[in-house]
Amino acid sequence: MSLAQGRPYLAIPGPSVMPEEVLRAMHRSSPNIYEGALVDMVRGMVPDLKYVAQTEGRVAIYICNGHGAWEAALANVVGEGDTVLVPATGRFGFGWADMANGLGVETQIIDFGLKTPLDPARVAEALRADTDRRIKAVLATHVDTATSLRNDLAALRRAMDETGHPALLMADCVASLGCEEFRMDAWGVDVMVTGSQKGLMVPPGLGFVFFNDRAASRRAEMKRVSRYWDWVPRSEPEFFYQFFGGTAPTHHLYGLRAALDLIREEGLDAIWSRHARLARAIWAAADVWGSAGPLTLNIADPAVRSHAVTALRLGAPHGARLREWTANSAGVTLGIGLGMSEPDDPSGTGFFRFGHMGHVNAHMILGLLGVVEAGLQALDVPHGRGGVAAAAEIIGGGTPVLLNRAAAGGIPAE
User: How confident is the model at residue 410, as a pLDDT?
Assistant: First the structure.
């Protein structure tokens, strides 16, 4: 017998759960793409997009995923023979570096591993060593979706400024925008990329590149930029079609309008606080489960854990078995481990991830945790009891009483 009948819950770190308002907005006939309501709606969305990014800069919209946004951003500020510096903290830093390589750009990678944030001092050291000013940009990931690690971009900007190096700071916020605190202008980020399918709560298919005047000046120095990736006509269109380099992604835009309305209504401060509280609830449950079993959070330091995605290790074969059980027996799909291979587990099947980004609330997270706790019990995986209760304490505004953790590890109950 399966208990999976009913509404499924896709608890992976993107595509995220879409609000009913977004789905209803998209369920319509095709509009006129030359004049009328659609044209006015798109122009009206630009200030709301800039609000989410906390910027007075400009934004270019592309019909693509996050990988396309990576390439679009690079194509406007670096060319063949240029160099970029990539402080990598997981799979997606290496992915952006690979995209740069495909454009003929040299990449200088500082690998910080899968469990620790980037060190601004080491980035600054690399910039000081670049006396020929070959490095045109630093490509930093705000939140790595694979490792669930969050980097301090404001500290990175300060370290870069202290060197006097002119490199642009480019940020990958695909996993973080609309979930984590991010302040593009205040933090000195020159270029930021994101996608529609996570914190913006819209299906995959839209990519966004935000940029400031420093980045626009770099674009003006480029010998050539491909017609499609060029952000100038997209950010300053004379005609409506130039927003998208051709036909508009009409139904995605209707969904985006609804999503931006929801974001405005709730407010960014409230959204950031909601994600932080729900993330702490997940961590509290994981602490309890790991007190008497093999489960661990990939990122040990709560200060650098993402509020949008959590990577966990249960070890092979338990991780894959748990994901199979939650999907087939309870209707909850957990994210797979990405780039988390170990010597005795080259495919990383012992890892899994929770996506808690965008359209999520308390009962969704408590339901997710309840299913995972049931799965640990059903599969006879050793674990501390009471993880869901600890999460409920956090959601209720209290401090979890980790009695099982105290009993298992000799740690005083909080």
Answer: 30
Q: State the pLDDT at residue 347.
A: 87
Structure tokens at 342: 């170990």
Q: Report in angstroms the alpha-carbon separations of 287 from 58, 63, 151, 249, 384.
A: 42, 41, 22, 43, 8
CA atoms within 13 A on the CB side of 213: 1
**How many Å apart are CA 138 and CA 115, to the nearest integer?**
20
- Amino acid 404: pLDDT: 39
Q: 224-236, pLDDT tens digit by residue?
A: 999 999 999 999 9
pTM of the model: 0.94
* Predicted local confidence at residue 183, as pLDDT: 98
Question: 3-state SS of the chain: helix, strand, coil percent to 5?
Answer: 45, 15, 40
Q: At 373, which amino acid appears?
A: E
* Dist. CA 247–CA 184, nearest whole Å: 29
The pLDDT of residue 400 = 59
Q: What is the DSSP letter of 312?
A: E
pLDDT of residue 412: 29
Please list the ranges in the chain whose pLDDT falls under 50.
Answer: 402-414
pLDDT of residue 277: 98
What is the radius of gyration, based on Cα positions, of the chain?
Answer: 22
Distance CA 399, CA 16 (A): 28
Q: Which pLDDT belongs to residue 140?
A: 98
Torsion, CA 194, CA 200, CA 204, CA 206, rounded to 10: -60
Q: Cα separation of 370 and 194, whole Å?
A: 31
Q: 300 burial class (0-12, 13-18, 19+ CB within 10 angstroms)?
A: exposed
Count of CB atoms situated within 10 Å of the CB of 154: 16
Token output for 393: 């304490």
Instruction: Please give the biggest Cα pair distance in the chain.
Output: 69
Whether the bond into 166 is cis, omega within 30 of 0:
no
